[in-house]
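Hi L., both proteins are below.
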Amino acid sequence: MKQQRAHAVCGGLVIACVLAILSLILVDAGGQTTPALFWHILLNLQLPLICTAVLVGAALAVSSASLQVVLNNPLADPGIIGISSGASLVAAIMLLVMPAHYSTGSLAVLPAACFGGALLSTWLIYLLARRLRGATTAVILAGIAISTLSSALMAWLFVFADAQAMRNLTFWLMGSLYQTNWSILAVAGPIMLFTLIRLCRLAPRLNWLYGGSRLTAAAGVSPARLNKQVLIISALGVGAAVSVAGSIAFVGLLVPHFMRLLLGYDNRRLLPACALAGALVLLLVAVINEYSHQIALPVSMITATVGGPLLLWALYRGQWKLA
C-alpha cells in the first residue's frame, strides 16, 4: 500500500514537472518570435533556466532531508547550519568591494566565489563538529554562530555600499534562477547530480539512524562515519546550489516535511520524492516569473510568501516532528 502511494505521488510529481517544463519552453512560442530567435532563446536562456531550477530544487530538498535525519532535527536547513551564509558573505564582498566584476558582466566570477565561500563555511563546520565529537546539537550551534558572524560582517559591508551595489546584493541574497549559464552549470551541475545520486544510495543506511546509534551499529553501519559522509556530501550539494542561484528560503525546510506527511519516513521513498518536489517548486517559481513579464521576482520572496504560512500551519497543527 505504501509502495503504491509512493509510486502515485512520484508519478504525479513527474507529470507536474513535465507540464511546468513545457510551459517554460513554450513561453515565447505564441508571440511574434522568429524560429531562429525562438531556438536561440530556448538553447541559451530557457534550457539553462530549467536545468538550474531542477538541479537546485532537488539538491536543496534532498540535502536538507538527509541532514534532518543525521542531525535528528527537523530544522536542519542549510541556512540554519551556516552553509548558505558562507556563500552569501562572499557574494557581499564581491558586489560591494569589487563591483566591477558584476557591472562588466563577469557573472562567472560571482558564482565561483560563492561556491568557495560555501565550501569554506562547510569546512569550518566540519572542523568544529569533529572537535566537539560530532554532537548533533553542536553542529547546529556552530552553524548558527557562523551565520551570525556572516550577517554581522555583511551589515558592516552595507555601511560602505552605494545604492546600486546594495540593490544588486539584496537581489542576490534573495535568490535568482537567472544568474547562471551553460558554463557555470558545467561546473556546478555535476556536483549537484553527484549529491543527489550519492544521498539516495545512502537512504537505506539513513533508515537505521531512526533507531539510534546502537541499533545502527548493530546493523553493521558506523553512525559516526555515516554522519560525516552525509554532512560533507550535503554541504557540497548545497554549496553548488547556492553558488548558481543564491540563497533560497524554505525549500529545504518545507519540502521534506510535507513529503514525510505523504509518504512516511522511509528514506528509500522519501529522498527521490523530495528531489521531484524540490524541482517542481522551483520550476513553478520560474513559471511565475516567465509569465509575469513585468519583473524578475526574487525566488526567496515567492517561496517565503508561500512557505511562511505553511510553516505556521504545520506548527499550529502540531505536525512538525521527525520521527
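That was the first. Here is the second:
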Amino acid sequence: MMGALLPLLVAGPLLAAGVLAMFGRRPAAHAIIMFVVLIASTGSGVALIANFGDGGALAHGVGGWAFGIAIPFAADMFSALMLTVTGLLAVTCTAFAVASGRANSRYFAPLILVLVAGVNGALLTADLFNLFVFIEVMLLPSYGLFVLATQGRAPLRQVSGTRLYVTLNLLTSTIFLAGVGLVYGAAGSVNLAELAGLASTDSTVAIAAAVCIFALGIKASVVPVHGWLARAYPATSPAITALFSGLHTKVAIYAIYRLYAVLFDGDARWLWIGVVVCCATMIIGVLGAVGEPTMRSILAFHMVSQIGYILLGVALFTQAGLTAGIFYLLHHMIVKASLFLSTGAVEVAYGSGTVGNLSGIAKREPWIAAAFFVAALSLAGLPPFSGFVAKLTLILAALEAGQIAAVVVMLLVSLVTLLSMLKIWGGVFWGRSDAGEGSQRADPAPDPAPQPSADGVRAATTRTTTDAVPRRRIGFALAAPAVLLAAVTCGLGIGAELLLDLSDVAARGLLDTSAYVEAVVNA
C-alpha cells in the first residue's frame, strides 16, 4: 500500500506547481502552498526512513501495468535518506530566498516545486530512461531560476555563468541519453531490475552503462570535467547556489552509487579507476580554491574537492566504504548549504562577497559568524562536528581496503581545506570595523574595477574609508536557515551513531541489491 504512494512525491509538487501557475501573483498563497508541499515531501522521506529500519525496499508500477511496461518507482533506505535531506535543503534555501527578496516573482514557487518533483522522481525511479526524464524535469526549472536570479541588467559574469550552465547540461543530457540508448540496444531493457548485474558479465552492457556514469560524472563535477561548476554556481543568487549545491550534483552522485551497485554489482575490476579519479578530484578541487577572490567561488571549488571524498565510498565498494560515503554525502549536503547561506547572508546584507572587502562581520553578526564557523570546521573535518565523523569513517574504510595513498590525500586536502576556511574567516568575519557602528570599513586601496555581486548589488568598494558599505544588519529570517543547518551538523556530529546506523542499512542495500530488484519485479 505504501509503495502505491511513491508516485505522489512527484505528482504532488507538479500538481501544486500547476495550481500556483494559474493563481497569478498572490505571494501569500504561493508561499503557503510551496512550503506546505516542501514540508510534506520532507516528512514523506522521514516516514520512509522509519519504514526501512531493517532494510528492504518498496516499489510500485504506475497504472498497474505488467512488469517491463509500467513506470517503476522504488525506494529503500538510501533513497529515503536522500529524499529527507533534499527536502530539508529545499525548505531552508527557499526560506532564505523569501527572506532575501528573491522569491517575489510569480514563477518562483512553481519553478521550485517542479524542481523538487524532478529531484524526487530521479531518486525514486527504477528505470534508466525515466532517470533521464526526471533529470530533465529537474533541470528545466533550474534554467528559469537562473533567469529569475537576475535583477536588472545582468553583469557579464552572470550571463557567462548561466550560458555555461545551460550549455553544459544540454551536452551532458545528450551524452546520458546516448548511453541509455546503448544500454537498451545491448540489453533490450532499461529497467534496473532487468539490468541487475548485467554490466559485470557483459562487456557491451558495461561500456554502455559506463557512458551513463560518465555523463553523471560530468553533472557531479568530477575531475577532469569539473571546471563548469566553479564558474556557473557563483553566477546566480546565494539562495539558488545553496539549493543547487544540495540537489543537482548530489542527485548525480546518488545515481552513480545506484547504477554501479545494481548494474555492475560492485564489479571490483574497475574500482581502481574510481580511486584515482576521486583522489585527483580532491586535490585539484582544493587547489583551485586557493587563488579565488570571492567567498562563493572558494566554496564552489571546495565542493568539487569534497565530491572526491563522497565518491571514494563507491570506489571502495565495501560495507565500511559505502557506509562512510553515504554518511559523507548527507553531511556534505547540509554543511555546504549552510556555508553558502551564511556567506550569502553577508553578501545580500553588505553588498559584497569578495574576501578583503569586508572585515569585522563577526562582531556585528555573531549568529551568522557562528553558523559559518561551525560549518567551516565541519567541512574541514574537525571534532565534534559531522565532518569529523564523515572523514574518520572514510579514512578507516580506506585503510581497511588498503588504499593508503587515498588516506594520505584525504589528510593533506583536509589541511588545505582548513586554511581556505580560515582565509574567508580572516578576510570577512575577523578584524575590526574602523568605520564605526552601522558600517564596515572599505578597502582603502584603489579599486579600479568594482565588481557587482551576483544578486545585482554593486560591491561597496570605494577609495575612502567612510560609508563604504550599506548600513544594514542581517535579520533573523535571513540568518535562521544557515544557523539551523549549522545546528544540524552539530547534532549529526555529537549524535552520529543514528545516522551511521541508517547509512549502514543503506550500504547493505547497495551491497546486496536482491531486495531492491525483487521489489521492482513484483511492483
